[in-house]
Amino acid sequence: MKRISNVSIIAIAVMSLAMCIACRANIPIREMSYAKKDISAAQKVKAEKYAPEELDAANKKLFESHDQAVKEDDKAAKKSAEEASNLARVAYNKALPLLAKDTISIAEKSIGEAGEAYAERLAAEEYHEAEEALKQANDQFQNRQYEQAYASAVRADEKAKNARNIALGKKDVLRDSIVEVKRTLEDAEKYGAKKYAADKFNLANENIEVAEKAYDARELKKGFSAVEVAKLNADEALLAALKNTAAERLAAAEKMVGQAEKSKYASQKKAEMNAARESLENAKSKLADAQYKDSIAASDEAMRLAMLVMSKKTEGTEIAEGGDVNQQQFDEKDYWEYTVVYRQRYKDCLWYISKKFYHNPRKWKTIYEFNKDQIKNPNLILPGWVLKVPKPKK
Prior knowledge:
Elements (H helix, E strand, L loop, with lengths): L5 H16 L7 H16 L2 H4 L1 H19 L3 H43 L2 H4 L1 H19 L3 H23 L3 H19 L2 H4 L1 H19 L3 H42 L8 H19 L3 H19 L24 E5 L10 H9 L5 H7 L15 E5 L4
Antiparallel strand pairs: 1-2
Helix pairs in contact: 1-4, 2-4, 2-5, 4-5, 5-7, 5-8, 7-8, 9-11, 9-12, 11-12, 12-13, 12-14, 13-14, 15-16
């Protein structure tokens, strides 16, 4: 049977009562008003969903009461109105706990979504207010305070949704964190993290990818979690790369300063030689203090000064003594030896060495293939390395 709506009943009631009031004064107005009030209260707690049979029965009894009043059966009208009130209260009492329980579940879901948006960090006040309201709703529900539980759950849901919106409005905080970690990874790669801390470097990159996808999906909590892992590993990769590069660069500087001290120009360039030694000591001190970038810079300066000592000319020379061909081994072996040097303007590279020995820079691959045990990246050769340059076959 089609459910009779409260609106229809009220419309019929108004018309019926208007007719009756004009003739009599014994209509059970008070009981019928209470019934309508009770039905309205049941509807506010969604009895249509949670107690449909009881609400339908209450509506029908109220309709009967009006019908009986029109027929001047006041006693029956009063009884039907009282039954309508009772049925409406039954519907209310049945619906309210179910409504409170479902609203608590809705609030829990909203808080979960706010959590995914990392509202606990980006909208902390609103998020914690939502959590507190939800806790209160659950406590009240356990104590059978269903009206209060429902009100608290509604408040928790509203605050959770607000917290999520605020958090999503700050999603660029995650983007800034991703950019910051990417810069660290670029720095780490520059100092050889792929060689010295490959696992941490790769893990950081993997988590940055996760963070970027989470950012696009607005899963900010997942994104921040991933970016924190990425940052930790990127920082450790950079530290390992700096530490090892600083040690490697220091070793190259020590070797080059040692070569400069034996150079035939050392006695003529005492100031430069002393400055090279001072920079070398500074590099050692900075390395011991874990000031790796400063140590690398000091080692580079020591090599620059050492090159200046070994140079036939002043600073900016093209060829240094350390880079000359080892003439003693010219005829004894099938290769020449070349010590990689440091230059401020023109960096030593395989292209330059090939041009120097073969008068053809495009033959650099020949040198690379012959020194693969030492050269891992043909674009990176370090001062102090001794390379073997194959002699052309006759």
